[in-house]
Amino acid sequence: MAQNGIVLVVSVSIFKDGEVLMIKENKPSAMNKWNFPSGRIESGEDILYAARREVKEETGFDVELTTTTGIYNFISSAGNQVVLFHFTGEVTGGSLDIKEDEIIDCKWVNMSDLVNFDNEELRDAGVIKQIGNSLVNKSFYSVNIFNQQLGK
């Protein structure tokens, strides 16, 4: 498969009572696939801001980013090289309000159950399971490794 381009993506695991929020996407590239709240970084956008924005747009929650599990590089089903920045976060405001045109369902999942999802149920299953293992093993890093843009 030919590579189409490089896509920068942010993704966030939101925790509540030992569980993590998963969303079921309703997008042409990921129909009925479970994922963490995520999306593309817009041109000129700060990575940390993009992560908070995507969570707000997809879930209605305001979040504080607490840690990162790392940066993941893979080829998507559309043939794009994806560089995904994954964070963990805690809800600081807002309320659950999914956009049914893009997100058709959501559920809180025990972290240890993330690795038990069938690969066909997950968007980019290898990456989701790799992140799930990091969550279960508490392999976290400080978000301070990301220097925010000045003025954002």
What are the key terms here?
alpha+beta, Nudix_hydrolase, globular, 8-oxo-GDP phosphatase activity, single chain, NUDIX_hydrolase_CS, 16% helix, 8 strands, 2 helices, 8-stranded mixed sheet, 152 residues, Nucleoside Triphosphate Pyrophosphohydrolase
Strand and helix layout:
Layout lengths: L5 E11 L2 E9 L2 E6 L2 E3 L6 H13 L1 E15 L5 E14 L8 E8 L14 H12 L4 E2 L10
Parallel strand pairs: 1-6
Antiparallel strand pairs: 1-2, 1-4, 2-3, 2-7, 5-6, 5-8
Protein name: Mutator protein
GO molecular function: 8-oxo-dGDP phosphatase activity; 8-oxo-GDP phosphatase activity
Keywords: Hydrolase
Estimate the global geometry from the Cα principal axes: globular
CATH level 4 superfamily: Nucleoside Triphosphate Pyrophosphohydrolase
Total helix count?
2
**Weakly predicted, low-confidence segments:** none
Number of strands: 8
- Give the radius of gyration: 14 Å
CATH topology (level 3) name: Nucleoside Triphosphate Pyrophosphohydrolase
In terms of DSSP E residues, the strand content is 35-45%
CATH class bucket: Alpha Beta
Seen as an oligomer or otherwise, the chain set is single chain
CATH-defined architecture: Alpha-Beta Complex
For the record, the count of structural domains works out to 1
Helix content bin: 10-25%
Q: Give the SSE order as H and E letters.
A: EEEEHEEEHE
Structural class: alpha+beta
C-alpha termini separation: 38 Å
Q: Residue-averaged pLDDT, rounded?
A: 89
